[in-house]
Design brief:
This protein has a domain of 69 residues: OB fold (Dihydrolipoamide Acetyltransferase, E2P) (Beta Barrel), CATH 2.40.50. Helices cover 65% and strands 11% of the residues. The C terminus is likely disordered. By secondary structure, the chain is an alpha+beta fold. The chain has 15 helices and 7 strands.
Amino acid sequence: MKKRDFDKINFKKVEIQKNKKTQKNSSLEEYDLQMKKFQEKEKKKIELQKRLQKEKENFLNFFNKKIGIEEIKNNFKIIILFLVGVIIFIFYLNFVTFKGNLKGEKILYVKMDGSRGSILKINNKYLKNQASIKNTKNFEYGTYLINFDVKRITTKNNYTTFDGKIIGWKESKLNIFRKYILNIFDDLFLTEDNLYAFSKAAILGEKSEVSKDMKDKFKYTGLAHLIVISGTHISLVIIGIVKLLDMISLAYRPKYIFALVILTFYCALIGFSPGILRAYIMGAMMILARILFEKEESKKSLLISFVVNVVLNPYSIFDISMQLSYMAVIAIIFVYPPIKKFFEKSIFSKIKNEILRNTVDLMFLSFVIQFTSIPLFLYYFQKLPLFSFLLNIIGVPIGTIVIQILFFIMLVNILKITFLNSILVFITKIVFGSFEGFIYAGSKIPLLQIGVSQKFSILFIFSFYIILFIIVFKIIPFFIFDKKPLIINVLSKFF
């Protein structure tokens, strides 16, 4: 054999050995890679099982399968306190309720608004039903102590009307100030029917000039709260006073003390109806918190306002406006924050534009308020609001601007700065014209609200709010994690 052939054979042998070695190394690397993948997969599987087990335990705890003795004690204490509160309220209600014969001579505490007067008290006692008398003496807007001889009583749908003769009356001293402010709007807006009616309703709570057509449009568009003095108006008063006092560099505590005095006078001026009393107490509590502690406690303020409201007028809890008012505040303070947190990562965090994020936030808040109030709308009005909350996004800011301007007009006229009236009236007409046009256009949109023929019971209301309570305070907190709930992660593997 030639040397060349021998070298070729040796070279081939070396090449074969190298290939075998390379293949062997490649197989080992591939094997190592597969083993690593398998180990990682097993590790993830074990972690997944641990997390599933942990979540299962949390889920069982959530449904009170493992309740501790301390938790039982705390729940028991809450139930006992609630029952004691209900018993005290029943006894108090029995004590302050009028029980005598309604016919005959009675002293009525009446709030007049147009052709009718709402009876607040009879002989310093409360009636079980809402009651009214005809304004036969053409009393001006305000409150009166009327000596009234009741001749006939008519009751329909838990609403009582007294017919009889007014023997004598005593006018509230605050009526003088009401008349003064009403004269301001008479001089400036008397020729503008809707603006005139809106100004009296939004600033003084007098709705006698508001037409049925105007009321219906505001109700249908979900903006009726702007022509009924509520927390919005009280907030505007507080903010307006504080900003004006900031302009004269008044010290922190004197500024809020002065704001509290003005707020008290204003609420006394318009009359402490249940809704206004709620807004006043909450506003006053927040001002006092700022004066004493320089911080606000909205939850405590809400609770205190409810207790005070019930003590001053126990039948206020049956007032529709008060129920809607409290439910709106409860939605803002309690319901909205956890729901917003739940959708924070999926919706709000993805919106980078600040204006768009604030718009979505306002839309979300309006929806939560409307959703929370649905049982009351169904029970009292047999109406189901669907999309009216969307109009609040534009309607509330425009309406708020109109109310702010009207408050400012009232202030400059009280201070006798009347040379500003011309320009202020001009601006008011333009802004209110836009607001009125928006209301009119909104009233033509179908399905903002739909009528419901079915009559809903009180049991339905309680059931709705119990379920809402469980969802907001039990279920949603259970699913609020720094990461997505494990259940969602598992389901995402399959879908």
